Amino acid sequence: MRSFLLFVIAALLASCNSKIKIDSLFVNGTVYTVDSSFSKAEAVAVKDGKIVATGTTAELQQQYDAKETVDLQGKFMYPGFIDAHAHFYRYGLGLQTADLTGTVSWEDILHRLSEFNKGLAPAKGDWIIGRGWDQNDWTVKEFPTNEQLNRLFPDNPVLLTRVDGHAAVVNDLALQLAGITAETKLTGGDVFVANRKPTGVLIDNAIDLVSTKIPPATAMQIKAALMDAQRNCFAAGLTTIVDCGIDYDDVLQIEKAQASGDLKMRLYVMLSDAKKNYDAIFKRGKIKTDRLNVRSFKVYGDGALGSRGACLLEPYSDKAKHYGFLLSSPEHFDSVAAVLYKNQFQMCTHAIGDSGNRTILNIYGKYLQTTNDLRWRIEHAQVVNENDFALFGKYSIVPSVQPTHATSDMYWAEQRLGPKRVKGAYAFNDLLKQNGWIPLGTDFPVEDIDPLKTFYAAVFRKDTKGWPAQGYQTENALTREATLRGMTIWAARSNFEENEKGSIENGKFADFVVLDTDLMTASFEAILKTTVLKTISNGETVFSKKN
C-alpha cells in the first residue's frame, strides 16, 4: 500500500511538472475572440505579454501552470478596444485647459472661463485656452462676437476652439498678436468681419494664424499630457489609439516616455502634413516597435459641417451660395499623394463634404489605379455623393468613420444638407459594403472618449436619451458583430497591425478589456450602463475598477 501511495504522489508531481509554465491564466469568462469565425472561449493563457492559448477553463487549467490565475466570474472579455481615429496627445494637452464641452450658451462659456481663470491666476500676457463649445447646442445658434471677451480678459490673449477644432473665438489681443485685420484673406479659412472689424470668429486655417503664436508646451506639460491621456484611455478599455496629426518632435517625446516605461499605451501615429515632418521621417524611415507605429500622414481636405467649412458640391441648404471650401488646393493634395506613394507611406485625409470626398477619392485613384493593399484612408467620409461610394471599393480606399458623429449631428445635419443629400451622410453600412470592412473611432476630444458610445451609436443610431425611438437613418446602422470588429480587428487592419492585435488569438499581444455586459445581446439601455472592469495591456492589468 505504501508503495502504491508513493507511486500516486510521484505521478501527480510529474503531472504538475509537465504543465507549461505561463504568467497569467484568465478563466471562467465569456471570451469574444473576434477571430475569423467570431468564436467564443472561456479562458485565455498569457506568457511574456502574448496570448499562448484559448479554450475552456478545464482544458487550460490542465495544460498550464500560471503564476497568476484571474477568475473572470462569468464576465465578458473582448480584445482591447482600438480607437481608429482620435487625438491622444492633443486630448492630453486639452485636459490642462478650460473645458467648454456641454456649454449651453455664450454666457455659459464666459462664466466657465471666468471660473477657470480664477484657479489659473495667469500673469499678464499668458494665454487662456479653452475648447469644446458648439453653437448648435445653444438656443441662439449663431457664432458669438468677442466684445465680452475683450472686457473680461484685456491683458491675456484668449483662444476658444469649437468642439471639432474647425472654428474658434479669440479676443482682440490674440488678433493683434496674429496680425489679423478685416483685410486678412487666406486659402481654406475665413475671418468673420462686422462693421469693418474682425468679430473674433475664425474658421479653419485662420485659426492657425493665432495658434502658432502660443508658446510650445514644456517637457513637463508634454509628459503630464501623455500620462493624463493614457490614464483616461485605459479606464475606457482602450489599448491602442490612432493619434491623427502630430509633429515629429511630438513623436520623439512619445518615444522617450515609452522608453522609460511610463507610457504603455500603443500608438499608431499619423504625422501632420508639414515639410519638417516629411523631411524628418523620410530621413529616418518608418518607425515600428511593439508600442509605436509611424508610417502615415494626416492631411486635411476640407473643414467641418458644423461650422459650414465642409466643401459641398451644391450650396448649403441653410446658407445660400455658400459651398464651404478645401483647406488646400487640389494641386497640394496631388503633390502629397505623389510623394507618399513614392515613399510607400499611408495617406490619411480628412474629408467631410461630398465635394471634399470626391476631390480626395479622385486624387487617390490617380495613384492607386486599382485594388491594392496600401490602405490609404479617408478620415470621416462623412458626406458622400451617391455616385462616389463605389470609388472606395474600386481603389481599396479605407473609410475611417466615427459613429458618434452621426448621433451628435443628426439634430441639424438635414438643415445643412437638405433631405436628399443627407441620405449620403454617416452612411456607415453603405461604406462597409465597398471593401467588406470598416475601422471605427471616436475622434476624441471632438466626441466622448468612451468606445462604448461608439458601439451604441453604430448599432442603435440613437442619442443617450434613446432618441429617435426608431433610430437615425437606420439603413446605415451596423450589426453588433461588424461594430465590434470595427473597434478591434478592422481598426488594427487599418493600421497594418492585424497580425499582432485586434483579436484574442495565439501569438497576438495580450490586450484585453473585461466588461460586465455582453455587448452581443444587451439592450441599448444596458450598453450605456456598461462598466469597464479591467483593461489589460501586454498581459499587465493597467486599469481595474475599484469596488
Automatic annotation (TrEMBL):
GO-annotated molecular function: hydrolase activity, acting on carbon-nitrogen (but not peptide) bonds; metal ion binding
Pfam families membership: Amidohydro_3, HUTI_composite_bact
Domain Aminodeoxyfutalosine deaminase/Imidazolonepropionase-like composite span(s) in chain numbering: 43-64
Keywords, sorted A to Z: Hydrolase, Metal-binding, Signal, Zinc
PROSITE patterns: PROKAR_LIPOPROTEIN
Record's signal peptide: 1-20
Domain Amidohydrolase residue range list: 68-543
Protein name from the UniProt record: Amidohydrolase
